[in-house]
From TrEMBL:
Keywords assigned: Aminotransferase, Lyase, Pyridoxal phosphate, Transferase
Family label: Belongs to the group II decarboxylase family. Sphingosine-1-phosphate lyase subfamily.
Endpoints of the signal sequence: none
Cofactors (names): pyridoxal 5'-phosphate
Protein name from the UniProt record: Aspartate aminotransferase family protein
Highest taxon of the lineage: Bacteria
GO MF term (any one): transaminase activity
Pfam family name, one: Pyridoxal_deC
InterPro entries: GrpII_AminoAcid_Decarb, PyrdxlP-dep_de-COase, PyrdxlP-dep_Trfase, PyrdxlP-dep_Trfase_major, PyrdxlP-dep_Trfase_small
Modified residue annotations for N6-(pyridoxal phosphate)lysine: K235
Single GO biological process annotation from the record: carboxylic acid metabolic process
Length: 473
């Protein structure tokens, strides 16, 4: 794109935004079962959008210049702390940043020369990202392949004198099960190591599911040994994107998450988050959403989410050739295929207007499809089950993806750094995955089948090239 010589009117710009979004997945209605969270309540969305816009140009960089930021953040963090066992918090841009700050605080508190982070293999990749940026080694622990939960004794065996943080999930994203938080936290405490609970998904949902009658085990800062917890408000808080909270049991540990620098002659630098300048729009949107829904609103959303999850889990289990993985305890449901290629099933569902999120096989866990149930899902759960059943039947008839002979070996043996983006795009197009501009949305079954056949490092290298091609120069 070239910068226009003369500025364009707002009406033209908004019309072009609508045109650019015409192939996007819908963010309302429940047909997209990942990435977006929908209450089904237009008035709540409107209140959040208006508050977001009102705070859009307020800069969180200097709270002394914009005291509204301090008051809003205190109220939002206070509400989360009130529900999740107390603590001292920071409002962040999302789960990844919350996790980044938790790892940084633990690293700086621990003072180890070779810091290590002990995580289940089901822990979110944000921990690997944080470790990559912060110079921490990841020690991954397997999970039970029947329950998909980490075992406390395996965590205990992985902890050593260099461990700065132990992680457990409530729930883990892939199968929606809750790790044994009390036992893992006890192991960490006995070793003198902090324990972080990743409740980015469940933190603002599990309390409302418990209120609706679900058997939710203790998981928050009230559990002895839990020293920090992350909770995304742009997930089951239903706030606009860019809203999360990380809580620390000890205010001294929260201070270790901060960054300050006086090594220059300019304005004072003190950041509570990874970012410096950042819009207060997400904070305003989160504040308004919490206020608009209130405790009763979230309890009602928890009730309908629990009902939808139960119906969906039971309905999928009744479809021939499909099986639910584990016993989901929250609102995340993953299912695998017996004789059905789930990647083909996902393409079939996409063709019927529904997005089901593919998950690759890893650490003994089979390839599967993932569904995030939200407040709007119950109204369309029968339609979703019909789409899944029809797509499963169509996938069974089509059969699994057949990879060209030698393709996986070819990709695994490529020096991808030696290929430019154009050559990589041609290679992808030669096997039916055309990523070049104007080629439309490719079916992803072939892509996912190739990725699934590669080791993790190979998957990562290919994904980097895909992203580079898609965005272009």
């Amino acid at each position: 794109m070239n910068l226009p010589l003369i500025g364009r009117p707002a009406e033209d710009l908004l019309a072009e935004v609508s045109r650019l979004k015409q192939h996007d997945l819908p963010v309302r209605g429940g047909q997209v079962t990942a990435y977006v969270y929908d209450t089904g309540r237009a008035e709540v969305n409107d209140a959040a959008a208006r508050a977001y816009f009102e705070m859009l140009e307020v800069n969180c960089l200097d709270p002394t210049a914009f005291p509204s930021v301090v008051e809003m953040e205190r109220q939002v963090v206070g509400a989360v702390a009130d529900v999740l066992g107390g603590g001292h918090g920071i409002f962040t841009s999302g789960g990844t940043e919350s996790i980044m700050l938790a790892v940084k605080a633990a690293r700086d508190m621990g003072g180890r020369a070779r810091p290590k982070l002990v995580v289940p293999v089901t822990a979110h990749p944000a921990f690997h990202k944080a470790a990559h940026y912060l110079g921490v080694e990841v020690v991954a622990v397997p999970v039970d392949l029947e329950t998909y939960r980490v075992r406390a004794e395996d965590v205990e065996g992985a902890v050593d004198e260099d461990t700065i943080l132990v992680v457990a999930s409530a729930p883990s994203y892939p199968q929606g099960v809750i790790d044994p938080i009390e036992q893992v936290a006890a192991v960490a405490s006995a070793a003198g190591v902090p324990c972080h609970v990743d409740a980015c998904v469940g933190g603002w949902l599990l309390p409302w599911l418990r209120a609706a009658g679900a058997a939710v085990p203790p998981f928050d800062l009230s559990v002895p040994g839990v020293t920090s917890i992350s909770c995304d408000l742009h997930k089951y808080g239903y706030a606009p994107k860019g809203a999360s909270v990380v809580l620390f049991a000890d205010p001294a540990m929260r201070r270790k998450a901060y960054f300050a620098s006086a090594a220059w002659p300019g304005y004072t630098i003190i950041n509570a988050t990874v970012q410096s300048s950042r819009s207060a729009g997400p904070l305003g949107g989160a504040w308004a959403t919490l206020q608009a829904l209130g405790r009763q609103g979230y309890e009602e959303l928890g009730r309908v989410t629990l009902e939808a999850t139960t119906r969906l889990r039971d309905g999928i289990a009744a479809i021939p050739g499909l099986r639910v993985l584990g016993e989901p305890e929250s609102s995340l449901v993953a299912f695998a295929g017996d004789g059905i290629d789930v990647f083909v099933l996902a393409d079939e569902a996409r063709g019927r207007g529904w997005f089901l999120q593919p998950q690759l096989s890893y650490a003994g866990i089979p390839a599967n499809l993932h569904i995030t149930v939200t407040g709007v899902t119950l109204a369309g759960v029968d339609a979703m089950l019909k789409v899944i059943a029809d797509s499963a039947a169509a996938a069974a008839e089509r059969g699994p993806v057949v990879l060209p002979d030698g393709l996986v070996e070819l990709v695994a043996g490529l020096d991808l750094e030696a290929l430019d983006d154009a050559t990589f795009a041609e290679l992808a197009a030669s096997v039916g995955v055309d990523l070049r501009p104007g080629s439309g949305q490719p079916e992803m079954a072939m892509v996912n089948a190739v990725l699934d056949a590669l080791p993790p490092a190979g998957r990562e290298a290919v994904l980097v090239r895909f992203l580079s091609v898609i965005y272009g120069s």
